[in-house]
Protein 1
Amino acid sequence: MDAAPSFLLMLHIASGAISLATAAVAIVAPKGRRPHRLAGKLYVLSMAVVFATAVALSLASNDLFLMTVAIFSFYMVLSGYRALYLKKPTDSLDLRYRAGALDKGAAQFTVIACSAMATYGGVYWYTEPLAPVLVTLGTIGSLMAYFDLRRFRKPTTDPRAWFFTHMIRMLGGTIASVTAFLVNSGDILPPLARWLAPTIIGTVVITVWVTYYKRKFSGGVEPESVAEVRLREMPEEDEEDGI
């Protein structure tokens, strides 16, 4: 193996391990407190490295699965993190707290890339072993990014939407990362379990959490009562952002 791909692979594995560890800390830590915010930031940074190295490795090895999971999982994490800044975009004078080039560019790239991969999987359905994965992740990713672009043009009026976007996207990105880890980790689990177990378990967890918080919010409870929510609405305020 060439030195460059070997280094990229080691960096990819190391950053992947850090991302899974920090994701676990962020999940169990009290929401909005310093450990949760710090773990969340480290998770996003490590996932950025995972994404960059995965793209480089996939181009070097022509690995469409790695490319698809990299784009899908990182967009979920990036958009989930940015949801913290886009709580009330129309109320902020600071451009960092409005959908800008980063948000729109990432969404547009994801729509194009995921649509292409879904199309490729559909065309080569009978000859490409990973066609179902390419079609599924490509379709979900492109639709998710497309609806984000629509939301950027017309922000939702639901004051709690950011809370669920942050939670679902971050957990969804973690599910995709765990799936990629299991698929590439050998025979830890049977092949079918490697593909389905993270999604099944993760979907159940997300559904339970979303239902739990929707019930709390429907009773008049605000996100501030279940998490230490911070929002900078004016650029001169000194308070740090985060959930």
Note: Residues 171 and 206 are 7 Å apart (CA to CA).
Protein 2
Amino acid sequence: MSAVAAAAPVRAVNAEQVGRRIEEILDQFAAGGDRDASAAAEELVRVLMEFYGAGLARIVDLLGSATVAKTLLDDELVANLLVLHELHPEDLPSRIARALAHQPVEVVDFAVATGTLRVRSTGGGCGCPSTSAATRETVADALAGLAPEVTSVELEGAAKESALLQISTRAPGGGS
């Protein structure tokens, strides 16, 4: 059997979910009241992050070609890891554009000081608050791994009034 055939299947991992789970575990240590155990758990996470970050940096350096880099960046998990370890080769505007490539919005501007990204809807939609909230949430989720510098999303022109079409069975100007 070849090494490729013997390899275990790759398990899908969501970087955001893993991050939340790590925070939950660290919170459990902190809630336990043992400060030494809590500090040791946080130190363990930090050391492992440094170790894996250094390994990932070495892989990126060794692979280096544009084709391989594009392949790595097109993989959501790998792209998120590159951002986490500050190894992503793209600048913030490029990462925002990459994250929003399949979203029905366009970037208006980004305020670095506040971390607020303003976007404008390019899709149809009713403009109602529930649709706007869903769009903001979808955009925020898309940005979470690739652009953690974005801490809030504002949807420009989110609550536009829609004109109502009045339908009547009476002829215009006619009586009952």
Note: The chain has two domains: 12-89, 101-161.
